[in-house]
């Protein structure tokens, strides 16, 4: 059985994953109308789907452990970006916040002596490590590319095969 504190904290994480999914969906919709960003668009949409999966995993867990997963209302995400680099910077910052939030959850689980939740959260800890690395790689590449159009062309092509593994 989850403690009230744990339930509340997990429900907050459900909101965060839902917000992540919306934010990346908005990035995908923005990049889809920019010329030549087919690969990037696919990446954002795929990432949005993954965040939804993270949210669902939490929903099932909370409900299976005797809680009630609350489906949250969402604020409109940022819709437009001055550049692709800015969108990726935002994605990276967002992932850092998610990691922080997962770490807080781990701390709460330990404090509550809730070892089942602690164990459940380890998947998210590993996932965040990979997501941070991927977002950092993308930012580093875009930094190198600068305004070089052929670099951007290659980035868009390569991101289709860049994965977390
Ligand atoms: Fe990328 O955040 Fe979910 O966990």
Characteristic key phrases:
165 residues; Ferritin; elongated; binds hydroxy diiron-OXO moiety; 76% helix; mainly alpha; 5 helices
Report the structural category.
mainly alpha
Element order: H for helix, E for strand = HHHHH
CATH class: Mainly Alpha
β-strand amount = under 5%
CATH topology: Ferritin
According to DSSP, the number of beta strands is 0
- Global Rg: 17 Å
Number of domains: 1
Explain what this protein looks like in three dimensions.
The chain has 165 residues and is mostly helical. The chain contains 5 helices and no strands. It has helices at 4-32, 38-64, 84-111, 115-145, 149-158. α1 packs antiparallel against α2 (38-64). The longest helix is centred in the C-terminal third of the chain and has 31 residues, at 115-145. The structure holds hydroxy diiron-OXO moiety (OFO). Residues 17, 20, 51, 54, 95, 98, 124, 127-128, 131 line the site of hydroxy diiron-OXO moiety.
Give the helix/strand layout.
Blueprint: H1 4-32, H2 38-64, H3 84-111, H4 115-145, H5 149-158
The structure holds hydroxy diiron-OXO moiety.
Residues 17, 20, 51, 54, 95, 98, 124, 127-128, 131 line the site of hydroxy diiron-OXO moiety (OFO).
At a glance:
With 165 residues, the chain is mainly α. It has 5 helices and no strands.
């Amino acid at each position: 059985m989850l403690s009230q504190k744990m339930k509340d904290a997990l429900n907050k994480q459900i909101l965060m994953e839902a917000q992540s999914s919306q934010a990346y969906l908005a990035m995908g919709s923005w990049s889809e109308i920019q010329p030549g960003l087919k690969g990037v668009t696919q990446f954002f949409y795929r990432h949005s789907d993954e965040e939804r999966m993270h949210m669902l995993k939490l929903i099932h867990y909370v409900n299976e452990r005797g809680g009630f997963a609350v489906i949250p209302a969402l604020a409109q995400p940022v819709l437009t970006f001055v550049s692709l680099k800015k969108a990726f910077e935002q994605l990276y910052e967002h992932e850092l916040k998610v990691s922080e939030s997962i770490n807080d959850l781990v701390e709460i689980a330990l404090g509550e002596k809730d070892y089942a939740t602690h164990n459940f959260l380890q998947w998210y800890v590993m996932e965040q490590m990979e997501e941070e690395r991927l977002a950092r790689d993308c930012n580093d590449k875009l930094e190198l590319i600068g305004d070089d159009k052929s670099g951007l062309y290659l980035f868009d092509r390569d991101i289709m095969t860049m994965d977390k593994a």
